[in-house]
């Protein structure tokens, strides 16, 4: 059977220039998008129970736009006015610019890395005396607390949002030739939504080693893996697989 339909477990790209649309044109396949996971904010009531005092901190470490959104959301819900003296340490320049949604950018002390948390840790070394707040999801990279601990920073983890499985019941009778995953949470959502799921001829593609491990741990067959030397992106891995597979059919 030829590959005709792909489901990507992420929101549909906002830009018409997405490589997934190019993939659809090049391989003549239908590419659909559906998030398998969604983010839910921790309520102000839940956060109060942690007894974390935001204003006891002099700096915030922001690892994503989602973290930024939920930091300012919880401040608003708890009627906390963030002082102008608060320092912001962002994972990347793009995240730093996203702060403009909430603060007057040019009047704040903002620092940013190159997208790697290890790089941000180096930048923070000039600010060792700060007390850092780290807004995170309940599922987060262990590298973050590990690097902070190893460098001896004074910090508090604040769980402000959760990653939960989406309701995919409307997909029950919809069949795809390839399912594409980007996180272990996506695999968990598949198993939760479809406990009777049988892979059969369905191909599974995964991005990153932790997602690949989650596929195998769930007892599923991993057919397409990225990144690799030959395919540094998911769309490249999909294109190579589809062309080879469909050519032999």
Describe the structure in brief.
Helix content is 33%, strand content 22%. It is of the alpha/beta class. The chain folds into two domains: 5-36 and 171-247, Rossmann fold (3-Layer(aba) Sandwich), CATH 3.40.50.10090; 40-163, Rossmann fold (3-Layer(aba) Sandwich).
Question: Can you describe this structure?
Answer:
- This protein is an alpha/beta fold and 249 residues long.
- α1 runs parallel beside α9 (234-247).
- The mean pLDDT is 94.
- It folds into two domains: 5-36 and 171-247, Rossmann fold (3-Layer(aba) Sandwich), CATH 3.40.50; 40-163, Rossmann fold (3-Layer(aba) Sandwich), CATH 3.40.50.
- It contains nine helices and eleven strands.
- The chain has helices spanning 19-27, 44-49, 65-77, 93-98, 117-124, 143-150, 184-193, 209-217, 234-247; strands spanning 5-8, 30-33, 37-41, 59-62, 87-90, 109-112, 131-137, 154-165, 178-181, 203-207, 224-226.
- The strands form two sheets. Strands 3-8-7-4-5-6 form a six-stranded mixed β-sheet. A five-stranded parallel β-sheet has the order 2-1-9-10-11, sandwiched between helices.
- The N and C termini lie close together (7 Å).
- The longest helix has 14 residues, at 234-247.
Indicate the CATH class of the largest domain: Alpha Beta
Query: CATH topology of the largest domain, anyone?
Result: Rossmann fold
Helix count from the secondary structure assignment: 9
| Overall tally of domains | 2
> What is the rounded distance between the termini?
7 Å
CATH architecture of the largest domain: 3-Layer(aba) Sandwich
Q: How is the main sheet built?
A: 6 strands, mixed
Q: Into which percent range does the helicity of residues fall?
A: 25-40%
Query: What is the residue-mean pLDDT, rounded to a whole number?
Result: 94
